[in-house]
Automatic annotation (TrEMBL):
It catalyses: a uridine in RNA = a pseudouridine in RNA. Responsible for synthesis of pseudouridine from uracil. It comes from Nocardioides aurantiacus. GO terms for biological process: enzyme-directed rRNA pseudouridine synthesis. One of its GO terms (molecular function) is rRNA pseudouridine synthase activity. The lineage of its organism: Bacteria, Bacillati, Actinomycetota, Actinomycetes, Propionibacteriales. This is Pseudouridine synthase. Keywords: Isomerase, RNA-binding.
Length: 312
């Protein structure tokens, strides 16, 4: 059996002679009849090395082997090095990382892939203990499909001060986004509340009853098919830039979830939205000096931008 199972062996006592296997299993191990039936049906129960069926009858002295699957906590942090995740800066108060695409910041329901906190633990980086167990030290988030620079608190003081800085909007969060077409005006502000989409738990939309959300953008480059924008966030809602760009009818290139053209995405060999956290600036919680950290475009985004620049 796999490492995710607990093996238990008992000899059938005289008191259970003639009982069905599911009944005996429930009594011997203190599980419900339903649970016993599930274990039998999935081949986790054997009588003298032979697979058991729930209608089999127990004989005294028979060896009963049961493999109980170990229930894992979906929010448990798995210590696992993440390829492509680089530490940009580390000191006694904080660690700044360059997060690759396809990596979550912390464990969550339904996510079984790599995480930033799992990588840091595997690397022996001790972070602040403030916050829920699966996201200790986390003061900001980046979507799984978004790459770039982010900060994690190592000291409790840093956690408190950085959380407050994000709350008070004194942190400069700068993203670059390639969007379809050309926004009009070329620079502006989107002030539109965001809430969960009415027909999907994992999508978001501009909604009158949503949370206040403010995005500032300016066009850096305008090309035939798309524009490269610099985006400054006042707020930090989930999928904020992606939702606001869709609301402008200029979705992030490659963002099929929010209305991007799949043909253009294929042409640019993009398998995710063109969105990258390029710069992060804040007052260092230890030195109280203003610091700034940057992240270069990863290979897939850099390639897509070159193709767009060439007008292909």
């Amino acid at each position: 059996m796999s490492d995710s199972s607990e093996e238990r062996t008992l000899e059938v006592p005289e008191t259970l002679a003639g009982e069905r296997v599911d009944v005996g299993l429930a009594r011997l191990f203190g599980v419900s009849r339903t649970r016993a039936a599930e274990l039998i049906a999935t081949g986790r129960v054997q009588l003298d090395d032979a697979p058991a069926s729930k209608s089999d009858r127990l004989l005294p002295g028979t060896r009963l082997d049961v493999s109980f699957p170990v229930e894992t906590d979906p929010l448990e942090v798995v210590e696992e090095p993440v390829e492509g995740l680089h530490v940009i800066h580390e000191d006694e108060d904080l660690v700044v990382v360059d997060k690759p695409v396809g990596v979550a910041v912390h464990p969550s329901m339904g996510w079984t892939g790599p995480t930033v906190v799992g990588h840091l633990r595997a690397a022996g980086v001790r972070v602040a203990t403030s916050g829920a167990s699966e996201r200790q030290g986390i003061v900001q988030r980046l979507d799984v499909g978004t790459s770039g620079v982010m900060v994690i608190a190592k000291s409790e003081r840093a956690y408190s001060l950085l959380k407050n800085a994000f709350r008070e909007r004194t942190v400069e969060k700068v993203y670059h986004a390639m969007v379809q077409g050309h926004p009009d005006p070329l620079q502006g502000t989107v002030d539109a509340p965001i809430g969960r989409h009415t027909s999907s738990d994992w999508r978001f939309a501009v909604r009158d009853d949503g949370k206040p959300s403010v995005t500032h953008y300016e066009t850096l480059e305008a090309h035939r098919f798309a524009s490269l924008l610099e985006v400054h966030l006042e707020t930090g809602r989930t999928h904020q830039i992606r939702v606001h760009m869709q609301a402008l009818k200029h979705p992030c290139v490659g963002d099929l979830t929010y209305g991007a053209d799949p043909t253009l995405a294929r042409r640019l060999r993009l398998e995710r939205q063109w969105l990258h956290a390029v710069r992060l600036g804040f007052e260092h919680p230890g030195t109280r000096e203003r610091v700034e950290f940057v992240s270069a475009y990863p290979e897939d985004l850099a390639h897509a931008l070159e193709v767009v620049r060439d007008g292909q």
